[in-house]
């Protein structure tokens, strides 16, 4: 090794070590996220059916079709509405659960595991159970209603009921992991703050308002962003439970993207819808962060 | 000037990346039985398709990759284990074909692949086309029509075309057969004789020749059932399970839903069909005929024995037999015009990609798949109509089961349509047909006229995007 290269190594030693550590991860990121992201965005400007034929450049035609189609526009609203309900209930219920997990009771480890389990089970298998329960004639829920002397409900005819069950299933499946993150936040709050507040005469509600919630602000931001991304990508439950019905009332945008891309092989339309959904997700996240940071200041 | 293929060659790496990226989510989500194998072309001489009409000699060497439904090693073992447990012979067509190929062409080195079914299979095959790793045989259901239309598949040798009933073929844009299914099915009307008897109908003399006959019998069972037993009607599930069962009735009136660059929903024939579907739905408990889970309906027929009539393929025979149902079966009732209708269902088409370098050997595998002896064994063992014309006419097949006879009669009675495939936004158009037309007919009280008008307009918009 000559003097020049030795001095290059000495001068850049730390940087080279750092790059050699992050290099493989950066490459992995580029291959699995960077290139797919760019390819997905590019697809939005082409018409291509996934066959070995030349993709046709169509410019903004896919976006124009999107914004001139009531079905696509309403599916954004359905994604926001159903996703919004999932998010709100999941955030609230998981916070309640985390508070419960935080109480020093016997068997709380078992309780935490029990709430986490639905997230491990396959969506397809667990949705099949819900679908079986909702069968109008001979299904478990209507059987129960009949035993209670109530009229059976034809769940699948009602948009309201089907949205309700989608939300219930989503919350049931996702509340455990979120509760664990809340719990980590709760346990990171300095206990002396509670003791000081108690000395100052704070009641339980005031402890929550002035100690717990401010202490969880960072965790809340993380959970919110995580949930926003989750609900904006939610389609599997809809696909398996309602197939977008009744009459398209649960046909969320992500389910349309799935059908456009992997069933109709209309990659252009799937790309355009994905770009719009992605931008919307980023926009909501930015608005939230702006509000959050403003409050922080 | 660059030709279309030159241009494709130049952008192939980009296409491959885009396809891989776009399909990653789907493939990883679906999982799979086997990974697509390495391209294994090369040993056989790349013969022209007309040369393939001559069968290869058994000593000829060939190395090929063939994608099928149940001829990979794991499926073969499972078929053998299942048959052993049930104390029967294996009658799966893929199993029988592989055994025959191994006996007929011992020098073929075949990589027997199974890439799953439906979207998962389609995704893997398209990814193989894009990457240039063409298997020597591809297969599947309706998407084979798309491959045919795109010119991916090599025309079938004439001897294979001549071997099979034309209903089992898929043609390309020029009308040339390019794929063949070793099996297929049509719909029949099954009924529970005991339930008919309970409703005061003699099951041995019941008239089920026309729509009106069937409706009268079904109404009578529902009326006598007091909310516990139902006659049954035409399912209108918000997925293809409904479309498959509605289409035969539309076909009986001479109607269709178009296909390719045309969609025809708002027609007088469709209006008449939907009125009948709506009238017959009263013979289902609410939410059963149009539920997302069609299993509930067939459970009521097979296990609960609370539905008297079901429209189904020959596979219903096994369910009825296993559940000790005293059942009868007839052809689907005729419309008022005296015409009967049906639709092709349960097909698994096999074709050879034009880019395969082992076409001759691949066609030999397909020849064995539709060979008479394989087809007879498969048809009798599974109660499913075979493609081979001689097997369809074979007395041992026809006499083996009355249900198989009914299906073969229907299959042999003329040209039966398949559900249409649309050039553009196929899945979105099917969603309109399934949910906003068929299911909406029985789930809402909207007029059929309005349903069809909205459906037509929405489907056309997708088709013309």
Summarize the structure.
The complex is a heterodimer of chains A (about 300) and B (about 475). Chain A has about 300 residues and is mostly helical.
General description of the model:
The complex is a heterodimer of chains A (about 300) and B (about 475). Chain A has about 300 residues and is an all-alpha fold. Chain A is about 75% helix and about 0% strand. Chain A has 13 helices and 2 strands, in the order αββαααααααααααα. A two-stranded antiparallel sheet of chain A has the order 1-2. In chain A, a hairpin with an 8-residue loop joins β1 and β2. Chain A starts with a helix and ends with a helix. Chain B is of the alpha+beta class and about 475 residues long. Chain B has 2 domains: about 220 residues, D-Maltodextrin-Binding Protein, domain 2; about 200 residues, D-Maltodextrin-Binding Protein, domain 2 (3-Layer(aba) Sandwich), CATH 3.40.190. Chain B contains 19 helices and 11 strands. Chain B has a 4-stranded antiparallel sheet. A 3-stranded antiparallel sheet of chain B has the order 9-6-10. In chain B, a hairpin with a 5-residue loop joins β4 and β5. In chain B, α1 packs antiparallel against α4 and α9 crosses α18. The N terminus of chain B is likely disordered. At the A-B interface, α1, α12 and α13 of A face α1, α4, α11 and α18 of B.
Pick out its properties.
heterodimer; A: MetI-like fold; 2 domains; two-stranded antiparallel ribbon; 13 helices; 2 strands; flat; B: about 475 residues; alpha+beta; D-Maltodextrin-Binding Protein, domain 2; 4-stranded antiparallel β-sheet; 3-stranded antiparallel β-sheet; 19 helices; about 10% strand; disordered N terminus
């Amino acid at each position: 090794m000559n003097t020049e290269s030795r001095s290059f190594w000495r001068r850049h030693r730390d940087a080279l070590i750092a790059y050699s550590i992050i290099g493989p991860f950066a490459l992995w990121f580029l291959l699995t996220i960077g290139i797919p992201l760019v390819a997905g965005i590019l697809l939005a400007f082409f018409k291509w059916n996934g066959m070995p034929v030349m993709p046709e450049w169509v410019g903004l035609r896919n976006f124009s079709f999107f914004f001139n189609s009531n079905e696509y526009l309403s599916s954004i609203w359905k994604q926001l509405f159903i996703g919004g309900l999932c998010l709100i209930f999941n955030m609230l219920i998981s916070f309640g659960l985390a508070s419960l997990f935080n109480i020093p009771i016997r068997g709380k480890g078992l309780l935490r595991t029990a709430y986490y389990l639905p997230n491990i089970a396959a969506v397809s298998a667990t949705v099949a159970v819900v679908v079986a329960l909702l069968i109008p004639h001979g299904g478990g829920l209507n059987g129960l209603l009949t035993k209670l002397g109530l009229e059976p409900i034809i769940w699948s005819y009602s948009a309201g009921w089907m949205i309700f069950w989608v939300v219930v299933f989503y919350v049931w499946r996702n509340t455990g992991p979120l509760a664990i993150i809340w719990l980590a936040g709760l346990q990171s709050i300095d206990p002396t703050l509670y003791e000081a507040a108690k000395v100052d005469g704070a009641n339980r509600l005031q402890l929550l308002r002035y100690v717990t919630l401010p202490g969880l602000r960072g965790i809340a931001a993380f959970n919110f962003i995580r949930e926003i991304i989750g609900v904006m990508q939610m389609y599997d439950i809809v696909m398996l439970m309602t197939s977008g019905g009744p009459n398209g009332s649960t046909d969320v945008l992500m389910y349309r993207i799935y059908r456009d891309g992997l069933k109709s092989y209309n990659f252009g339309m799937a790309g355009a819808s994905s770009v719009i959904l992605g931008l919307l997700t980023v926009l909501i996240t930015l608005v939230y962060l702006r509000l959050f940071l403003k409050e922080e200041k | 000037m660059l030709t279309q293929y030159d241009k494709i060659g130049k952008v192939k790496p980009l296409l491959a990346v885009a396809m891989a990226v776009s399909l990653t989510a789907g493939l990883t989500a679906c999982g799979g039985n086997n990974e697509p194998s390495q391209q294994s072309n090369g040993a056989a001489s790349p013969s022209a398709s007309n040369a393939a009409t001559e069968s290869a000699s058994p000593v000829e060497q060939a190395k090929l990759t063939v994608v099928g439904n149940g001829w990979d090693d794991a499926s073969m073992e499972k078929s053998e284990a299942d048959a052993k447990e049930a104390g029967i012979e294996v009658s799966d067509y893929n199993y029988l074909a592989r055994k025959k190929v191994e006996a007929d062409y011992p020098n073929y080195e075949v990589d027997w692949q199974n890439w799953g079914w439906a979207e998962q299979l389609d995704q893997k095959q398209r990814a193989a086309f894009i990457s240039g790793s063409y298997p020597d045989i591809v297969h599947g259901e309706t998407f084979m029509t798309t491959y045919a239309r795109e010119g991916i598949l090599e025309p079938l040798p004439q001897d294979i075309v001549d071997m099979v009933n034309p209903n089992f073929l898929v043609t390309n844009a020029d009308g040339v057969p390019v794929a063949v299914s070793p099996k297929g099915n049509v719909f029949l009307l099954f009924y529970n004789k005991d339930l008919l008897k309970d409703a005061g109908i003699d099951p041995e003399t019941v008239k089920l020749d026309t729509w009106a006959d069937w409706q009268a019998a079904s109404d009578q069972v529902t009326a006598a059932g007091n909310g516990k037993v139902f006659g049954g009607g035409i399912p209108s599930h918000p997925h293809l399970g409904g479309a498959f069962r509605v289409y035969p009735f539309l076909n009986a009136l001479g109607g269709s839903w178009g296909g390719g660059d045309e969609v025809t929903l708002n027609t007088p024939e469709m209006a008449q069909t939907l009125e009948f579907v709506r009238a017959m739905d009263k013979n289902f408990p609410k939410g059963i005929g149009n539920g997302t889970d069609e299993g509930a309906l067939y459970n009521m027929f097979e296990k609960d024995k609370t539905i008297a009539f079901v429209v189904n393929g020959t596979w219903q025979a096994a369910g009825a037999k296993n559940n000790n149902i005293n059942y009868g079966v007839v052809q689907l009732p005729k419309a008022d015009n005296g015409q009967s209708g049906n639709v092709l269902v349960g097909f698994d088409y096999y074709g050879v990609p034009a880019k395969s370098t082992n076409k001759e050997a691949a066609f030999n595998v397909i020849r064995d798949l539709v060979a008479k002896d394989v087809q007879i064994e498969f048809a009798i063992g599974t109660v499913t109509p075979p493609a081979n014309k001689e097997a369809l006419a074979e007395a041992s097949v026809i006499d083996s089961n009355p249900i198989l006879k009914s299906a073969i009669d229907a299959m042999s009675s003329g040209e039966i349509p398949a559900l249409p495939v649309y050039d553009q936004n196929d899945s979105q158009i099917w969603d309109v047909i399934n949910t906003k037309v068929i299911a909406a007919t029985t789930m809402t009280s909207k007029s059929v006229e309005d349903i069809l008008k909205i459906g037509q307009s929405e489907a056309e918009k997708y088709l013309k995007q």
